[in-house]
């Protein structure tokens, strides 16, 4: 029988290194998280490389890997050894000309519990993801694992309440957001506080509206690999929130850290009994949500 409580972790790291070193680093940090009692562990978005989407350069497609190759092999073996669930976000080469921003959900026995492909793809200054990533085609999913039923979205998906809702409605107990988000250094003084606040607030809102645990795993560090640019200062601040939006654990802006919190399904049930948002949804009146605009 599934347990009524289990521990989740998000790992916040500087990933501005080559793929081989990032893999070794992440394997080590996952091992550390498991040693601290974590049972479901998430890495940040695109764990194996620096954030290459700061430019549009076909050479960066070399960072991609086919399904079930390097990342899956390494983390599947580690999951089986440690008996933990691992969320592994990676750059997927599906076929020539089709690439995805994806995440494996690897179960505690090393098997694949699921695959998620990022659905919402941004195109902002130095976040040129549309050049690289085909939008996901697997939809929004909740994945049963040996530890609990979890949902995984990725970064830009954070801003869309529909994505969180559709995942929660499938029974997800926790919604993980592997992330790579930061400040443009020249804009930080003017806009940084509001940008970071909006990022946290929207995900805390998803937790409240759905009575669900939310866990965001971000990277840290200044990644300035392009000449004559200020780069991106990744703001860290990874966090885990409870089903009323309460912050259970939060990381710094600039340190590598492991955050661990307990998922308590009895608390979640109590919150949903007292705030029955799912019960009161007017699904008969929501048809227009599938339109681009209501003119």
UniProtKB/TrEMBL annotation:
The UniProt record lists the keyword Transferase: yes
GO molecular function: acyltransferase activity; N-carbamoylputrescine amidase activity
UniProt cross-references to InterPro entries, sorted A to Z: Aliph_Amidase/BUP (IPR050345), C-N_Hydrolase (IPR003010), C-N_Hydrolase_sf (IPR036526)
Alphabetically ordered keywords of this record: Acyltransferase, Hydrolase, Transferase
Short name of one Pfam family: CN_hydrolase
Gene3D superfamilies for this protein: Carbon-nitrogen hydrolase
Ranges of residues in domain CN hydrolase: 6-265
Any one GO biological process: putrescine biosynthetic process from arginine
Name assigned to this protein: Acyltransferase
């Amino acid at each position: 029988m599934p347990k009524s409580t289990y521990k989740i972790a998000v790992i916040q790291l500087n990933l501005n290194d080559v793929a081989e070193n990032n893999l070794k680093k992440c394997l080590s940090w996952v091992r550390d998280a498991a040693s601290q009692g974590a049972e479901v562990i998430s890495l940040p978005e695109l764990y194996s490389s620096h954030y290459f989407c700061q430019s549009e350069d076909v050479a960066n497609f070399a960072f991609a890997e086919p399904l079930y190759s390097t990342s899956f092999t390494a983390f599947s073996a580690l999951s089986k050894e440690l008996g933990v669930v691992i969320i592994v976000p990676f750059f997927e080469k599906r076929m020539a000309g089709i690439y995805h921003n994806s995440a494996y959900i690897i179960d505690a026995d090393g098997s694949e519990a699921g695959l998620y492909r990022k659905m919402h793809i941004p195109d902002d200054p130095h976040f040129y993801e549309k050049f690289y990533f085909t939008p996901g085609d697997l939809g929004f999913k909740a994945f049963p694992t040996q530890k609990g039923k979890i949902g995984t979205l990725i970064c830009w998906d954070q801003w869309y309440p529909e994505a969180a809702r559709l995942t929660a409605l499938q029974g997800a107990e926790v919604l993980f957001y592997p992330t790579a988000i930061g400040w443009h250094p020249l804009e930080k003084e003017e806009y940084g506080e509001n940008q970071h606040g909006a990022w946290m607030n929207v995900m805390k809102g998803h937790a409240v509206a759905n009575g669900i645990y939310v866990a965001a795993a971000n990277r840290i560090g200044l990644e300035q690999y392009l000449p004559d640019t200020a780069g991106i200062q990744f703001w860290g601040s990874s966090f885990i929130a409870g089903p009323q939006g309460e912050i259970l654990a939060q990381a710094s802006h600039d340190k590598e850290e492991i955050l661990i919190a307990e998922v308590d399904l009895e608390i979640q049930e109590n919150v949903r009994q007292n705030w029955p948002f799912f019960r009161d949804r007017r699904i008969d009146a929501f048809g227009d949500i599938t339109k681009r605009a209501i003119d």
